[in-house]
Automatic annotation (TrEMBL):
<dbReference type="InterPro" id="IPR036890">
    <property type="entry name" value="HATPase_C_sf"/>
</dbReference>
<dbReference type="InterPro" id="IPR005467">
    <property type="entry name" value="His_kinase_dom"/>
</dbReference>
<dbReference type="Pfam" id="PF00512">
    <property type="entry name" value="HisKA"/>
</dbReference>
<dbReference type="InterPro" id="IPR022510">
    <property type="entry name" value="Sortase_His-kinase"/>
</dbReference>
<feature type="transmembrane region" description="Helical">
    <location>
        <begin position="15"/>
        <end position="34"/>
    </location>
</feature>
<keyword id="KW-0472">Membrane</keyword>
<feature type="domain" description="HAMP">
    <location>
        <begin position="445"/>
        <end position="500"/>
    </location>
</feature>
<dbReference type="InterPro" id="IPR003594">
    <property type="entry name" value="HATPase_dom"/>
</dbReference>
<dbReference type="InterPro" id="IPR003661">
    <property type="entry name" value="HisK_dim/P_dom"/>
</dbReference>
<keyword id="KW-0175">Coiled coil</keyword>
<keyword id="KW-0808">Transferase</keyword>
<feature type="coiled-coil region">
    <location>
        <begin position="444"/>
        <end position="471"/>
    </location>
</feature>
<dbReference type="Pfam" id="PF00672">
    <property type="entry name" value="HAMP"/>
</dbReference>
<keyword id="KW-0418">Kinase</keyword>
<keyword id="KW-1133">Transmembrane helix</keyword>
<dbReference type="InterPro" id="IPR003660">
    <property type="entry name" value="HAMP_dom"/>
</dbReference>
<keyword id="KW-0812">Transmembrane</keyword>
Length: 726
């Protein structure tokens, strides 16, 4: 038959389990949030690659979307093959570049390296005195161009002059979407609205005014600016422009600088403007909260959608809990969350990302996609405030890579989710810590209360003299404190039995020894009546002296027991305490004729009616005075009595040896004596002052002994409550 033992959880086990539990919560919570962030990053990466794949799939095998933008070229030449930026706002045709975004960084410079023509007379003459900067942009149905020309001498066309090429002028050449080649000259007579002409042969044909090309000619301290717009219907994928410099009125062109030779269709360069068709397809993906780019095989941007600052991913959504108006949410918003963000960092709402030029994208992931492999990468912005995830997927036309789709997002959405998770984690940990602290406080209070109860029970069970007053109730709790309580109960019970044995031992010894002592005494008395040799008489006297001494010892041993028993049955009565005291002192003077007794009674205490036992009060005084007489060295004992704080104070002093320091608190215990062997002319068991203490306690008083100096001696103080007066 198996024994079933109760399962016990000790205090240390409970504390350890609670501490481990509270400590493990933050660690597991942090690990969970960390793993969650890693999985969210992985999920965001896969989603981004999927978005790029989906968009690239819609562009596969659609060559018309790319051929119309010169994407078929095996290579592009900087300055000859141009790119028109997508403009977010229409351009005001005023000859100023203020509304052209990033004109300084985006404008391409044309100078000596782009010289198309130099007059023979100037072949070895002065250096080139004209150069210009230009940029292109597309908005709605127009292609906008801006030319900033630096010219040391500006020559306008004469008012009556028919020729339009005998002055500074701008030449444009396009091949439209139908494949038709056209040339245009801008030749102004003065600053202001542009004079635009369509030409085929300057020498033999009259130029035709072309109002479709509109713009403004503005003179500047360095030369002049030309700002114009051309309908996209007039522009295909071929373009060239050239600025002709004339240094004297009605003179010939001295220099021509341009992107390509505008005289022939085959010499024109290419132009790429963001494709409306591709933009419509890309715009349908704007709900993905991503920044999207489409590039051709030359890294030139064909379409774009979205803003990287707003592309936080599909996870960056406003939580419904943020609208909560509960008191806990208010507490979090006002106090806790500002505290949390002393450690956490908020995702930046504004950051600088200039890795890409708006016309030409670079990056390992783009290079990899243009080689036919879907790739992704993580990168920091230039100001290192945000992390950007980029995914690129190739676009195939006739099994050849003709471009790539690039999709970008920041990790702000994930960081926001992570911060919210950590906010909830911190709040939960704080709540758990508070609850744990309360639980620990209650648990510790319960333990301390039980320990205090056990302490109080132990103090009540044993008095200051070591006597057992009452038994300890055993605890039924099955833990260490319960074990300790039961151990105390067992120990107190055993001490009680032992004390009971000691208390009864003197009476038992006295009872058991008196019979053999009486036999020995009788035998000695009978023997002394017989005729004995003189030498034997001495031995008989010594034996009788020993029997007398032994009988005295037994009498002293039983006296304390008799006093204790008598006190339980003694009735109290009213008596004059001062009269009893004076009567006792008169008797001591006769008993101890060699001792001088002095008594000092307070003038206010002529009589003191006291409720008690006068016989026992006299016995109390006998024991204390006898002890003082034995130890006095100047043959004097002083007694003094007064009233202080409803207490009757009686002091008995003698001059002589001081009490040992360790004996001052034990002098009134049973079987305690400070007499040396030389002083013990009579047997002493240390019960006299113990009896005095019993009588004092019977009258609800206290007795104590202390040393006094100058001269040295001992003072015994007896304190009796005057509340016992009748």
């Amino acid at each position: 038959m198996a024994l079933s033992l109760p399962i016990r959880f000790g205090l240390r086990s409970k504390l350890f389990l609670l501490s481990t539990f509270l400590f493990s919560i933050p660690w597991f919570g942090y690990q969970y949030v960390w793993e969650m962030e890693k999985y969210l990053r992985y999920g965001q990466e896969q989603t981004l690659v999927g978005t790029a794949r989906a968009l690239a799939t819609t562009l596969h095998d659609r060559p018309n979307l790319f051929n119309s933008h010169a994407s078929f070229l095996p290579s592009v030449e900087q300055g000859r093959d141009l790119y028109g930026y997508q403009l977010k706002n229409p351009i005001r045709l005023d000859g100023q570049y203020r509304d052209w975004p990033n004109f300084t960084s985006r404008a391409h410079e044309y100078g000596q390296d782009h010289l198309l023509y130099r007059q023979e007379a100037n072949a070895t003459g002065k250096a080139l005195t004209m150069e210009f900067k230009t940029t292109l942009g597309k908005y709605d149905k127009y292609l906008y161009l801006f030319f900033s020309v630096t010219d040391d001498k500006l020559v306008f066309r004469d008012k009556n002059m028919i020729n339009i090429n005998r002055n500074d002028h701008l030449e444009l050449a396009f091949v439209d979407q139908a494949g038709k080649f056209s040339r245009y000259l801008i030749s102004n007579k003065k600053p202001g609205w542009l004079d635009t002409y369509r030409i085929t042969d300057l020498e033999n044909n009259i130029p035709v005014v072309t109002p479709q090309i509109q713009g403004q000619w503005l003179t500047t301290p360095q030369g002049y600016n030309i700002e114009l717009r051309v309908p996209l219907s007039m522009v295909g994928d071929k373009i060239a422009f050239a600025v002709h410099d004339v240094d004297q009125a009605q003179g010939k062109v001295s220099h021509t600088v341009g992107s390509a030779d505008p005289r022939f269709a085959k010499t024109l360069g290419t132009v790429l403007v963001p494709s409306p068709e591709i933009e419509r397809i890309v715009r349908s993906m704007r709900y993905t909260n991503s920044s999207i780019w489409v590039v051709d095989q030359h890294h030139r941007v064909l379409a774009t959608a979205g803003d990287i600052r707003q592309a936080a991913g599909v996870w960056h959504k406003k939580s419904a809990n943020s609208e909560s108006t509960s008191w806990w949410r208010g507490l979090e918003q006002k106090w806790l969350i500002p505290l949390y963000y002393m450690v956490l960092t908020r995702p930046p709402s504004d950051f600088i990302d200039q890795l890409y030029d708006a016309s030409n994208l670079t990056g390992k992931h783009i290079v990899g996609a243009l080689k036919g492999a879907a790739t992704s990468q993580w990168r920091l912005t230039q100001d290192q405030q945000a992390v950007i995830l980029s995914a690129a997927y190739p676009i195939f036309i006739n099994n050849q890579v003709q471009g790539a789709v690039i999709v970008e997002e920041t990790t702000n959405g994930i960081r926001t989710l992570r911060n919210r998770a950590l906010e909830k984690l911190f709040s939960s940990i704080l709540a758990i810590m508070l609850l744990g602290a309360v639980a620990f406080f209650l648990f510790a209070s319960r333990i301390s209360s039980r320990i205090r109860t056990l302490r109080n029970q132990a103090e009540q069970a044993i008095d200051e003299h070591g006597r057992i007053k009452q038994a300890l109730p055993p605890s039924s709790t099955n833990d260490e404190i319960g074990d300790l309580s039961r151990s105390f109960t067992t120990a107190v019970n055993r001490l009680s039995q032992y004390n009971h044995y000691l208390e009864n031992m003197s009476s038992r010894l006295s009872h058991e020894l008196r019979t053999p002592i009486a036999v020995v005494r009788t035998s000695l008395e009978n023997l002394s009546m017989q005729t004995m040799p003189e030498s034997a008489s001495a031995y008989i006297d010594r034996a009788q002296s020993g029997i007398t001494r032994l009988n005295l010892i037994l009498t002293n041993m039983s006296e304390a027991t008799r006093i204790e028993q008598m006190l339980h049955t003694t009735d109290k009565m009213d008596f004059d305490f001062i009269q009893v005291l004076k009567g006792c002192v008169q008797g001591y003077q006769q008993i101890y004729p060699n001792i001088s007794f002095a008594i000092d009674v307070d003038e206010q205490l002529e009589t003191v009616n006291f409720l008690g036992s006068p016989e026992h009060i006299a016995q109390l005084l006998d024991k204390v005075v006898a002890n003082a007489v034995e130890f006095t060295q100047d043959k004097s004992v002083k007694l003094a009595i007064c009233e202080e704080k409803s207490q009757l104070l009686l002091t008995i002093s003698n001059n002589g040896e001081l009490l040992p320091e360790q004996m001052q608190g034990r002098l009134f215990d049973s079987m305690v004596s400070v007499r040396s062997s030389k002083r013990q002319e009579q047997p002493h068991l240390g019960l006299g002052l113990y009896i005095a203490r019993l009588i004092c306690e019977f009258h609800q008083g206290k007795i104590s002994a202390s040393n006094h100096h100058q001269p040295d001696g001992v003072t015994v103080t007896i304190s009796l409550p005057l509340g016992s007066k009748s």
